[in-house]
Every structure is written in C-alpha cells, then in structure tokens.
Amino acid sequence: MLTGITALGIFAEHQPIYASHNIPTFPMNGKRPAVKGFTKAGSDLSHQWSLDFPEAEALAFMSGARTKIMPIDIDSPDEDLRRDTEKRYGPTPIMVRTPSGGTHLWYLHNGESRQIRPDPSVPVDILGTGGLVIAPPSMGTKGRYQFIRGGLADLHKLRPAANLDQQARQLIQQGGRNKALLDYLRNQARHADDLETLIDVAQTFADQHLDRTSGHAFTDAEIRNVAKSVHDWTQRKIGEGQYFVGTGRYFMEGHDKLNQVMALGPYACALFLRLKVRAGGLKSFQIANDMRHDMPDGVWPLRKMQDARKALTDAGIIKEKHRASSFYGTTVYEWA
C-alpha cells in the first residue's frame, strides 16, 4: 500500500486546468474566498494557493476583462425563466447548474458592469466586472456545481450577451464618484471578512472604473476612508440586530409580523423567513413551486409548498402583483 500520498481536493486538481485556459482561480470556504487578495490573483499566486490549500473542495474566479467571462446568474430552478433569459440575452455554448438548482449562463465579457437584479421582479444577476463566480466542479453545501452544456473547451465559442447596455470602463464623474464607490461597497460588504479585504475590493473597483489620468482619481487614503466608513456602518447595523441579508441593500429591521405568521403553522413560517432572506428588500418576487427544493429542512411536498404560499396570501402577508406570463414564468408577488 502506498503511504504519504494525499488525494487532492477539487481546487488543487482543477486549478491547473483552469490556468491552462488563462483563468486564475482561488480556493473557496463555502461561499467565501479562503484567501485575501483574490480579486487581483494572477497565475503565479493561484498556483501557490493550490499548494497551500490541497484539500479545498471548491474554486472560483473573478468575472471581467482578465478571464473574459461574464456569467448571467439565474437564482431559480424555473426552466421557463431559464429559457426566457437565454432567449433575451442570446444562446450560449456553456451552461452551469448550481447546487440550489439555479443556472449560470456564460457569455464573453464585453465591458459589462456587475448588476444585481437589474429587474427587481426577476431573480437574475449580471455578473460583470468584479463578480465572484464559483466554478465547476466545486462542491457546495447542497451539492456540486456542474457543466450541463459545454465546458472549458468551448470558451472560444463564447459571444457577448445581447441587449445589455455597454458600460466598458465607464468613467464616473467627479460629482458622483464618492456615492458610486459607497454604494458599490455596501453591496460587497457581505462578501468581505474584514476591513482589509473590503479595501482590496474598493481598490479593484477604482482601478476598473476610474480614469486615473483624469486628475480625479481616488487616492489610497480616500479609498481606505470610504471602505472603513462602510465597514463600520455594516458592523454597527449588525450590532443593532439589523441582519445583513439578501442583496446587501436590505436589513431586516424587526419581525413585526412574525407572531402573526407563526400562528399560520411551521411551513408558512419557514417560507416567510426564507422569503425575507431572499427577497426582503425587493419590491416584487416570485415564489415558484420549485422553491420547495431549496428549503433548509429538505425538499417539501408540493402540497405543503402550495398551502404555505396560500396561507401567507390569505393572511395578507404577501399579495399577487400579477399573474404568470410568458416572461416571468410564475406569478409575481409583493409584500402586502
């Protein structure tokens, strides 16, 4: 029997494969990067991490100009929504299934910025510049990320997504640059473990979106001050019991309806809390039947899902905004 040989984890095994396609990757710890400086990782640092983290079971990369990949993230198992999204943005040779049943459609990066829920009623994100992308065959807590159409060998076939505003290196005007950086960091703070990581994220954003030759670029001190302001603000909100959830733009400020919901039974209560995390800050949202596959206590029977949704509607917690259509796929709801 051979001794002294340890099986490589997914990151160490697949890092050189992605590197051969000029995609520097980094190890993940769950849905968080296991290292700092990942936003600027090159091939040498990526290789070193593969030696430092031989047992990591997940890897990720940054979308944007370096990797030339721009995924569109569909955070729903709804196949009608997937088909409509691909119809809207154009066909792609590479498709990834996420452990929760969602889909990543890979396109050629064409200068797009990162956009979280550009249409608030549809669970679709544009992972443009600065988007963190967990890569197949990473193992998540609920299962594996896997290519279900194409793979790395098809990267040369990628084309830009259609019907997207082109924002390649868009210059932020002097009067709005502080607010732009502040808003961006507030949306990124949930991914940063500490202040130094958030500063690194801020510097990357400044490099990619500010013209440093214009005389209006941020200094390192200004970047640090803005990042510290956002970090302190975030920690204060958490300390006040306002939990940082969902898209990063919403804080759950108390549960004024929780007692009412608890009286509706455990399934209605669980669905309510799940909706608060996933859609608490949205004006409208979907509650597809397939959401029953993404519950913390396992897959729900279809009837339990339907009954829980009806209970919340009948109690006036949520209400229908409009019925199912060819684009939305399912009925769209809003908070009552």
UniProtKB/TrEMBL annotation:
Superkingdom, taxonomy of origin:
Bacteria
Annotated DNA primase/polymerase bifunctional N-terminal domain ranges read 16-163
Q: What is this protein called?
A: Bifunctional DNA primase/polymerase
Source organism of the structure = Ponticaulis profundi
